Amino acid sequence: MELSLLPLLLYIPLAAFYLVSTVINFLRKRLHQAADYFLVLFLGISFLETLLLILQTVGVFEVFIPPVEENLPHYGILLLVGLCLSLSLLLFKKKGPGWIFLGLDLVWIAGILLVDAKAIPLPDTLWVTPKIGFYTQNMSWAALLIGWGALVVGTGAFLIIRYVKARTVFIKNRVRYWGGALIVFSGGALLFLLGIEHAGSFFLFVASLAIIYIIRTYRLPDFQAMAYKLISATLTGLISLLLFTFGFLLGERILGRYSWYRSILSSLPMALILIIFYNPLQEKVKEIVQILTGEPYNRDRALREYSKSISSILEIDLLATVSVGLISEALDLVGGALFLVDEVELGTGVSGWRLRGVKGMGGTLPNLDILTENNIFARVFVGEQRPLTHAEIDLSHKFQTLPENVVSWLQALDVEVFIPIHTKSEWVGLFALAPKRSGASYSSEDLELLGTLADQTAVALQNARLVESLTVVNNEFRRAYAAMENAHEKLERIERTKSDFISIASHELRTPLTVMNGYTQMLSSDGELMENPYYADLIEGLLGGADRLHEIIESMLDVAKIDTRALELRTQPIDLAVLLQRVSRNFERDIQVREQSLLFQGLEDVPKIQGDPQTLEKVFSNLLSNAIKYTPNGGKITIGGQHIPPTSGLLEWEGVEVVVSDTGIGIDPQAQKEIFTRFYHDGDVGLHSSGKTKFKARGAGLGLAVVQGVVEAHGGRVWVESEGKDEKNFPGSDFHIILPLHQPAQNL
Length: 748
Ligand code: ADP
What we know:
The protein folds into 4 domains: 3-217, Rhopdopsin 7-helix transmembrane proteins (Up-down Bundle); 225-293; 299-471, GAF domain (Beta-Lactamase); 567-747, Histidine kinase-like ATPase, C-terminal domain (Heat Shock Protein 90), CATH 3.30.565.10. α10 (299-310) packs antiparallel against α11 (316-331). Strands 5-4-3-8-7-6 form a 6-stranded antiparallel sheet. It has 21 helices and 15 strands. It is elongated, with a radius of gyration of 54 Å. By secondary structure, the protein is an alpha+beta fold. Residues 622, 626-627, 630, 662, 664-665, 667, 675, 680-682, 699-705, 733 line the site of adenosine-5'-diphosphate.
């Protein structure tokens, strides 16, 4: 037996290749991908097929029925062509009837085998006319070719329909690649069936390489771009060859006389020239090819223009419009969108992101409300920080199970590629870019360029967002300010009304009160009437009430004067000790009734001050009456005084301090400023008795307003110190009054 070596040199490496790739693809198979299993099956059968060829070549393999032995590799080839159809269905239609076609293919092969094995008894001659005859020995050969034809036509038709129907560019691109690989594969299979087995095997091998590559790669390089590269490289090669030949021939002709080294002399300079100019030549050819086949984009120019245009934009909408517009223009895209990304806390320590569409691809942009931390999108965009293509989402099993909201968001967008935008520490945005107008897919250079553009956008986006939040704060501030102004105006109006009311009421009440007072006085001077104890009591009551009313009206008048700054001070030197004695004499009876004690401390040493005695009497009168009112029976009231030298820091001038202290119910710290406002009352007014000095008797709430007005008109200050209100322990209150010794000019 003679061993032909040549076919073995081809088959053995092929068998090794198929075996290794079967194992590798089995190990790397993705559990969710049926196509991966079919690929392993396909490679495994290819290995067995090549093994069979080797065994047949070395003659180890013998079957007793010769036609079966002869045809055995052909059955294998038909099986492989059938697997190609199943693979096509699986690749481009998620749930395809891959197994059904494979089954039909197997039945067909089994039929041929049975005929070859003569298991079905058939006559030698099937059909004869005078011109042609059809014999059983040719039948299996014809059946193989028919099977091949049916499978190729079926696959071809399916791919053409798929190509036409494909909505996305990446599927079209994929079909193009797959179609190319299958043409080579079916060509190889045909050569094989026709008996040109070596060439056929070689073509089948090349096609298998392509098939593995296509199934295992998500993002195939753009078909057109590849074609351009190939054309450019071929053209450059041809031009170089022409130049070299021309130069060489020219050199030969010029140097014709110098026989032995003329070829070196003529080829060397040409070679040098080509070495130097090859690269620029290649660039130029590439440019020309690109210009002839479509408008190319210039990467550097695109980058420069982009950063120049967006760096100064501070408005988010405008930024989105300009950035998406420039990118679409540079890459000739159908459209694009920019999403703003906000990190949100979802509670229970899980964080997520909210995607807010700014610039749409035509209509309104769908927002993606929540993208949780553990979502695959978040992992790609935040963890890996890389672009994501539609191809990957469609093909990778990682994206097979997506939450409902993400699926509908994706469906609403016609996106070919997502580019995340990151600042140093944060994910701030996302470009969602549509397919290219030309139908070409994104090349790796495109993705690289987009990555750089996204980096540039990050800074601008952050600035714009900062401005946006500043604008929001500013608007809120403005609104708050307007509301405050409004409230202020209202308050002023109320204040005006209040003081108008006080002034009108006090003036209007004064006249009838004087009349009433006059008549009551008359009644009280009627001796006869006063002898009757009943009438005397009534008249006393009337007199007391009129007095109290008079006092209240006086206070109202004072407050009105203080409000309108009409309080006139008639100043003169005052001995405060004398003034306070005089005031306290008016309360002697009340103190007695209430069994309280009144004490003076240090007043003798107080120097004389310049002031208005009449108004100051009111001040101390009010303070003393309050002290009596808010101190329980048996309590102690102290009026202390001291000189304040100019160095004390309390006053700008030299002055005196008077402190009226009691052992009464005290005043809450939060009320200590408010009690000086007009008509102030603490809560439980209803419980108060009336009367000037009865315990907790209710007053009009004007006393302390008069005190403060008068003291301040004198250029002094008044405040209260108390631990708080406590009607059980009686912490007491200290009213401090500071008055300057001399009146400053403006108060005179
Ligand atoms: P009234 O005429 O109601 O006493 P004032 O203006 O004199 O009005 O006082 C205002 C409020 O200050 C009083 O209602 C009271 O609650 C509180 N107050 C004034 N002086 C004292 C004091 N010596 N002890 C406790 N509370 C006081």
